[in-house]
Amino acid sequence: MFGKRGLGEAPSAAPMAPAAAPPPVTRTQASVGSKPAAAPPPRTANAPPAAPPRAAAPSVNAPNARMQASAEVGETPEYRSEAYYRVKSTIFNALIETIDLTQLAQLDPESSRDEIRDIVAEIISIKNVVMSIAEQEALLDDICNDVLGYGPLEPLLARDDIADIMVNGANAVFIEVNGKTSKTAIRFRDNGQLMNICQRIVSQVGRRVDESSPICDARLPDGSRVNVIVPPLAIDGPTLTIRKFKKDKLKLSNLVEYGSISPAGAKILQIIGACRCNVLISGGTGSGKTTLLNTLTAFIDPTERVITCEDAAELQLQQPHVVRLETRPPNLEGSGQVTMRDLVKNCLRMRPERIIVGEVRGSESFDLLQAMNTGHDGSMGTLHANTPREALSRLESMITMGGFSLPPKTIREIIVAAVDVVIQAARLRDGSRRITQITEVLGLEGDTIITQDLMVYEIQGEDQNGRITGRHKGTGVGRPRFWERARYFGLEKELAQALDESEAA
Q: Residue 214 in contact with residue 233, Cβ under 8 Å?
């Protein structure tokens, strides 16, 4: 795209500018509005001279070779010179002085983009900036993204193969593709531009991020989860982390295709979701807990009333009767906070049939267990843990840390009575995601919680490409604890068949 050229070539190519360049205008100022200026003179008939042949831009390193965009999205620019950013800044400032943002806001996105492109093309012609057609198109797209979207992040957000976008300051943008993290050539103009984009994201959900409130959780319109932490807590500049959602929602059949679970295991999970078992999904960061939770909710009966509680609403249930609740941080005065526990407690007054907690991380775990024990069968939640047994231990410790002065045995009795199945998800060292265990909670023996694996994932080695190979294998359990529940829903034959198939695998 835009290759390196002499530092004095592009900026000096503005002899036809009628006046000095306007002072820089930040994104925040631009969003408030600007005074309309006279329209630029009519575009001259002479096209900008074409750039002379030049050497190709330096090649990117090996990890960036995996960052190929899909055909419909196009490739991300691999290299942008300092001259490019100086020209872009000059044209952007001239655009802000020229365009009336109040009128622009009244147009639809496509019309707005066309209007901006026309004005930018005229500015390029007036200032006699020397660039090729490809460079001009890249510049037009970048400026449109700055004004209407999320700036340099737009090409990454448009790609469906990216799982995470991690911005560590203005000059360090990383992405995760196929479980592997690599650095991109994308950068921001400065930390000020990055901060303005962070403000734009969080303001869409009624939140703020600044020095007085430097940490914020938010979401994008498509449901992607966003975390922002800014100085003084983030030393090297604003840090932005986006957990992207795929445009096409994954189904359980997709997990089978990817090898995350076997067909027999998928059938077992389907029965667990349909017969109203209380489920905990355990796993590490980025292991696919939320994705798995979304797939399991597909088997909820459409007639059931489902209430979800999340810190940042990202669950996407397809049932018609769903109520989505979201926590709220405190305001400037430090009041008005609504915690996860407040939401879970309020759920019990809303006649739910199932309660789904996006992530269990505190004292709300006790209220969730109480709900599971009082007629809200089929409730689900996720938490961070490395094994199913650790998940139950963490559940116990979260109740204790919540200030409940209950004997340990009483807490374990509540856990055993409430939780039916723990599903363990993991991200392996090759970046692949697998459901490694399906474990049911049997009961309490003395002071110890007894669990039983229905299916485990056995690692067998790795192939010639370094990908881990293995298989999902049943443990030989013929009648799990939730057998009677499956019989109640008429699913005992399907459950028996799935268990037999998993054992024979």
A: yes
CB 436 within 8 A of CB 430: no
CA distance 6 to 136: 17
Is residue 398 within 8 Å of residue 362, measured between CB atoms?
A: yes
474 neighbors 458 (Cβ within 8 angstroms): no
Burial class (CB in 10 A: 0-12, 13-18, 19+), 484: exposed
**Cα(181)–Cα(345) distance, integer angstroms:** 39
Interval 394-442: pLDDT, tens: 999 988 887 778 888 899 999 999 999 999 999 888 888 899 999 999 9
Picking from 110, 86, 96, 112, the residue whose alpha carbon sits closest to that of residue 28 is 96
CA-closest candidate to residue 270, choices 233, 244, 313, 301: 301
Token pair of 52 as six digits: 């002379």
Domain 252-504 has CATH 3.40.50.300: yes
| Whether 449 contacts 392, CB under 8 Å | yes
| Integer Cα distance of 243 and 228 in angstroms | 12
User: Which residues neighbour 203 within 8 Å (Cβ) at sequence distance 6 or greater?
Assistant: none
Q: Smallest Cα–Cα separation from 498: which of 448, 445, 455, 452?
A: 455
Confidence of residue 80 (pLDDT cuts 50, 70, 90): low
Could you tell me the two tokens for 478? 């013929």
The predicted model scores a pTM of: 0.71
Domain with CATH 3.40.50.300 in the chain: 252-504
Q: How would residue 81 be classed by pLDDT, with cut points 50, 70 and 90?
A: low
Q: For residue 437, how far is the Cα from the chain centroid?
A: 25
Helix (H) or strand (E) holding 253, with range, is helix 252-257
The chain-wide mean pLDDT, for the chain, equals 78
